[in-house]
Amino acid sequence: MNTTNRTERFKVIVIGGGQSGLSLGYYLSQAGHSYLILDAEKRIGDAWRKRWDTLRLFTPARYDSLPGLPFPAPRHSFPSKDAMGDYLEQYAGHFNLPVRSGVKVDSLSRDGNIYEIDAGEQHFQAEHVVVAMSNFQYPKIPSFAKEIASGIVQLHSSAYKNPSQLQEGPVLVVGAGNSGAEIALEAAKGHPVWLAGRDTGHIPFHIESQAAKLFLIDLVIRFVFYRILTTDTLIGRKVRPKMISNGGTLIRHKPKEFAAAGINRVSRVNGVKNGMPVIDGKETRDIKNIVWCTGYYPRFSWIDIPVFKHEEPMQNRGVVTNEPGLYFLGLHFLYAMSSAMIQGVPRDAKHIAKVIGQRIQ
Asked: Which candidate in 95, 101, 222, 289 could, as Cys together with 166 as Cys, close a disulfide (CB 3.0–4.6 Å)?
C-alpha cells in the first residue's frame, strides 16, 4: 500500500471508464452519490479507438446508447469503433461524470471496512469499489509462439490495425471467432490465408438484411440475449459455462464467406517445428504472418482480495458474495448473455447502483 502521498477518499470508486463504468456513473449521479471513476486510458473511449481500423459494432445504433443519451447515428446503421469511442467521450461530458483519465490501478486491497487502491503514486480509499472492466485484459498467446522463426510477423488481434502491418506472403489467423473471422477476410484481399480454429457456429441470418433490421435483431438481442439467457433461467445457467469458455457465435459472417474468399480452414495449430507453425499435425514452411485471435486473460491478479474461483469472481449479479462493498460490472455473462454488450450493461449497472444505495443509507 502506498502511504507516502496524500490519500483521496470517496464513498464509491469505479475502476474503468468504458461503457460499464460510465453507465454506473450515470445511475450513481442520478441518486446523488459521491464517487470517482478511474480510467487507465488517456482519453475516454480510447479502448475502442485502439482496435483495428475497420471494426464496426455488431449491433445497430438503436442498441448502442447508454442511459439518458441516444447514440447519434441512424438507428439501423452499425457504428464504427471510433464513433463508439467518441460517443463515450461525449456521454461523460454531457452528464459531467467525474472521470479521472490516465490512472492505471496497480492494486486493490481491503483494510478493515475500507478498500485501498494504489495507482502509481496516487492512493485512494473507498467504502465501495466497482471493478467495471471486461474479461479482455491481457492478450492470450500460446507459449510456443516464442519458438517461431523471427522472420515471421506475429501480432495479437489487440495490436492488429490493418493489413499494412503484414509482410508479403501467406497469413495464418489463429482463432475463428468474430475477431479472427473479420481479420482473416480482410487479410484475404491481398494474401493467401489459413484460418485455424473450431467452428464456433453462426447466427442464422445476416445482421444487415432487411428482415434483421425489422425484427430478427430485436428477437435475438432483446429477447434471447437479454431475457432468456440469464443466470435466473435454467437454460441460461446451463449454457453460461460454455459461453464463458468458448466464446460466442459468429455474428456478421458465415462460413461460406471464407470459402468464397479463398481462405483455407484448418482445425488447429499444434506447436512449432524448425521455427514454423505445425498446422493439423503437419509442418508448414511458407507462413509469413501470424495473427493470434486467441482471446485474453482476465488478469485480475492486482486484486488482493480472495474473491475468485477458477478466475471468476464469486458474485451474484455483480455483487460479490461475502465481500460487502465490492462489485464487478461488464464481465462476459455476468448476469446475462448481454452483460458485456452495450445494450446489456445499463441493466447490470442500475442493479449495482441500487445495491450500493441501499448499503450507503
From this structure: 289
Which helix (H) or strand (E) segment holds residue 130: the answer is strand 122-132
User: What is the side-by-side order of every strand in the sheet holding 269-273?
Assistant: 269-273, 276-279, 282-283
**What integer pLDDT is reported at residue 105 of this predicted model?**
96
CATH number of the structural domain 139-202+249-292: 3.50.50.60
- Residue 110: what residue type? R
CATH number of 7-137+298-360: 3.50.50.60, 3.30.360.10, 1.10.10.10, 3.40.50.300?
3.50.50.60
Q: How confident is the model at residue 318 (pLDDT cuts 50, 70, 90)?
A: very high
Neighbouring residues of 90: CB distance < 8 A, sequence distance ≥ 6: 69, 72
CA angle 51, 107, 314 (to 5 degrees): 85
Q: Is the pLDDT of residue 209 over 70?
A: yes
Whether 298 has a pLDDT exceeding 90, the answer reads: no
Distance between start and end Cα atoms, the chain: 29
3-state secondary structure (DSSP) of residue 288: coil
Cross-strand partners of 12: 35, 128
Contact yes or no for 20/48 (Cβ under 8 A): no
Kindly report the three-state secondary structure assignment for every residue of 61-79: HHHCCECCECCCCCCCCCC
What mean pLDDT comes out for the span 320-343?
A: 93
Pairing of strands 122-132, 138-139: unpaired
Residues 140-152 pLDDT 10s: 999 999 999 999 9
Residue 269, H or E segment: strand 269-273
Q: Is 77 exposed, middle or buried (0-12, 13-18, 19+ CB in 10 A)?
A: middle
| pTM assigned to the model | 0.91
* 148 contacts 136 by C-beta, under 8 angstroms: no
